[in-house]
Model the fold of this input.
Amino acid sequence: MAEANHTAVRELTSRLVSGDTRALARAVSLVENAAPEAAAILSACFPHAGRALRIGITGAPGAGKSTLVDRLVQRFREAGRTVGVVAVDPSSPFTGGAILGDRIRLQHAAEIKTADPGLYIRSMATRGALGGLASTTADVVQVIEASGKDIVLIETVGVGQDEIDIVRLADITVVVLVPGMGDDVQSLKAGILEIADLFVINKSDREGADRVERELRALQSLAGAHGDWIPPILHTVATTGEGLEALDAAIAQRSAWLQETDGLTSESHESPKGNRLFTRRQAFWREHITAMLQRALLREVRRHGLHAESLDAAAERAASGEKNPYQFVPQLVEQTFASSSAPVTSLDHLGIAVTSIAAARELYEALGLTVAHEEIIEHEQVRVAMISAGGSRLELLEPLVPESPVGRFLAHRGPGLHHIALQVHDIAAALSALKARGVRLISEEVQTGAGGHLYFFVHPSSAGGVLLEICQDQGKK
Ligand SMILES: Nc1nc2c(ncn2[C@@H]2O[C@H](COP(=O)(O)OP(=O)(O)OP(=O)(O)O)[C@@H](O)[C@H]2O)c(=O)[nH]1
Ligand SMILES: [Mg+2]
Done:
């Protein structure tokens, strides 16, 4: 099964790397939906990604972003450059415009079918995915890049932190403004102003474009130092294509600027390590790796106790005051790390066959050890007494009848070490791993013992002459 998946992923990625649009579309869907194959797909795409120029286009709803993207795509394609487009959460129809001659409404995540193999257009609408929209978009861009596109355009509606995070993954961020915003320029999210590498005042056929520019310049001068790039302000009319040549040129200029060394590093000019693009990509990866880590850790915590249902239960108990989240969150974290640090947590106990527990326990009690509990296990016809010994335990076993397994052991070998019990995190995995190695087992299934305790036994002939019990850790007791 896992093997089949592995082969399927390899096939899919090799098809997408060689430019197969259907394979690309399928891989993007799997990644967007966080399918089980997503990690393997991304990993296989990584060596082929990172070569495209990423251009982020953000701005208020209806500012003309899609119309601009459409124009840019046309120009890039005419120049022979291949293009991928990701429209995140489009609220208005994506204009296939000049490319398709039609306006197409994208309600949900979907592809726009283009006859041009050098162009791939995708809309995304995945909100609330584990790890966030920005992280998912970054992954989708990786996959599109791996398909060999020269340029990836990312369109987002610039209203919130999500969008700021998304365009930050771009190498060049274009912020689109429109006349008639009036004082709105003042209220533009500070974040948006800071991330802009280029400002485009679209719909410059309308009145007030100059005023927007004046306000923008005032804000820019207020903001003070810019480093050595002052974001240019361009005027466009996306519907007619006016100003697009200048925008194209400004993008090229910014792109060339990114290839230069930033003067801060001592790396040689030839080394990509010294250039600004590298610095920008490094900042991107720093953020993306952090997001990936958060996602991976959350997944791990969920595997170790915080399932979706128990999150609801925990929330309910926190709201009712029954459970203190400031205590249980650190506990959950500790539990996750304690149990994921090694495949075997500890030696759970040593089982010792005795003729009389009453007689045997005296010795341990004289040593100051306490007998935790004593009970009868009916189906094994044995009485057991557990003695805590540091982090581990001793289990005294007294047969109830001579024909019981422990009774027969005593008859053959006399009192002494009967078995060793190791604790594992995943008993089912341990069982199948041993089965796969042809290890001789006492029973082929996991057994349930007293108090729901899960265990199975490995035959001494496969375990160096000692009967070996494998049991599931049940969280520290
Ligand atoms: N007058 C004028 N209209 C424009 C211009 N650019 C775009 N439009 C129109 O503005 C409307 C919105 O354009 P879109 O390109 O869909 O805008 P958008 O920013 O992608 O919109 P969302 O994706 O919904 O945020 C459409 O009716 C366009 O035809 C322009 O330069 N001048
Ligand atoms: Mg749009």
User: Anything to note?
Assistant: The chain has 17 helices and 18 strands. Residues 74 and 402 are 89 Å apart (CA to CA). The radius of gyration is 32 Å.
